[in-house]
């Protein structure tokens, strides 16, 4: 097997949007073994794709808060040793940032990435030995697919295929069919009103769907608790890691979510999905629309509960 190192450290959605490129790569270059450098908080994500043989964690987010501690520099030295210990056929920076290009130079292999006109941080392209032009007008998923194709010598074709596995159904889930409400996101401007979630949940319960409400941070937990208290019979999920979240989503009868990484994870798992947008453009950041997945809303527009229910009925009927 020939070893390839992929640099895509964060965030959750960015990592998820890289999976279709890996599916293409597995089809065209099955002899490759992919190791993936990812931020330690997202280290559960890469291994959900069967092509990834190894995940190498990096801790930029933690290190930058403790640059004057000896332990930080010991960890950095250990990572440099790990990356240099393998001879890589190619080191591909799909992130396009200095924080990904710098560790790419520590690796023992040619470093490739976007050219200066295609990249988020043009300075990062100066670190690369091989540079590729990819239109910035494409979606994140298609940019990844085109970059991989250019780097490994093939032309991506067809609709994107995420190609991941969700794992076993979690023991604490309710019996029967359930819907997952992904209410949490990184900015308040991307939230959907709590009253809308409550009305939606009541309508779904009338369709014999149990309601599951996950959370991540303390603020998300508080919102989840408020929603669960207002929705009789709703299940407040326990704290989960990303692999458990994949299992939760992968066995759901329906997922409704705002613009957040877990919504894209549900999209990758091909479950009936409605993605709600209130402050971003789904043409650029939306889920991949299929018969079982659809976007609704846009910046400055709050979708109604009835509109979401109608769209959900369509994707569930596919």
TrEMBL record:
Its EC number is 2.4.99.23. Pathway: Bacterial outer membrane biogenesis; LPS core biosynthesis. CDD domains: GT9_LPS_heptosyltransferase (cd03789). InterPro entries: Glyco_trans_9, LipoPS_heptosylTferase-I, LPS_LOS_Heptosyltrfase. GO terms for biological process: lipopolysaccharide core region biosynthetic process. GO terms for cellular component: cytosol; plasma membrane. Keywords: Cell inner membrane, Cell membrane, Glycosyltransferase, Lipopolysaccharide biosynthesis, Membrane, Transferase. Belongs to the glycosyltransferase 9 family. This is Lipopolysaccharide heptosyltransferase 1. It comes from Vogesella indigofera (Pseudomonas indigofera).
């Amino acid at each position: 097997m020939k070893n390839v190192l992929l640099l895509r450290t964060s965030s959750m959605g960015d990592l998820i949007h890289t999976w279709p490129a890996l599916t293409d790569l597995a089809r065209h270059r099955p002899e490759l073994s992919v190791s993936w450098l990812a931020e330690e908080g997202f280290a559960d994500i890469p291994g959900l794709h069967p092509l990834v043989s190894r995940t190498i964690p990096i801790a930029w987010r933690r290190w930058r808060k403790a640059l004057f501690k000896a332990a930080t520099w010991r960890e950095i030295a250990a990572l440099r040793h790990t990356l240099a210990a393998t001879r890589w056929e190619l080191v591909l920076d799909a992130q396009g940032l200095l924080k990904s290009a710098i560790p790419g130079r520590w690796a023992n292999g040619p470093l490739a990435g976007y050219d200066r006109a295609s990249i988020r941080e043009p300075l990062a392209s100066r670190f690369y030995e091989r540079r590729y032009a990819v239109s910035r007008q494409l979606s994140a998923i298609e940019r990844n697919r085109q970059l991989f194709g250019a780097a490994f010598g093939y032309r991506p074709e067809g609709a994107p295929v995420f190609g991941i596995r969700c794992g076993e159904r979690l023991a604490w889930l309710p019996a029967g069919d359930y819907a997952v409400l992904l209410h949490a996101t990184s900015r308040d401007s991307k939230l959907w009103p709590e009253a809308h979630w409550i009305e939606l949940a009541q309508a779904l319960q009338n369709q014999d769907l149990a309601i599951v409400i996950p959370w991540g941070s303390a603020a998300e937990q508080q919102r989840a608790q408020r929603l669960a208290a207002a929705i009789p019979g709703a299940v407040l999920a326990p704290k989960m890691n990303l692999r458990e979240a994949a299992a939760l989503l992968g066995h759901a009868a329906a997922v409704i979510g705002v613009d957040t990484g877990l919504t894209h994870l549900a999209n990758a798992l091909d479950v009936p999905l409605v993605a709600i947008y209130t402050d971003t453009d789904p043409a650029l950041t939306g889920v991949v629309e299929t018969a079982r997945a659809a976007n609704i809303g846009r910046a400055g527009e709050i979708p109604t509960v009835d509109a979401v229910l109608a769209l959900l009925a369509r994707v569930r009927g596919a």
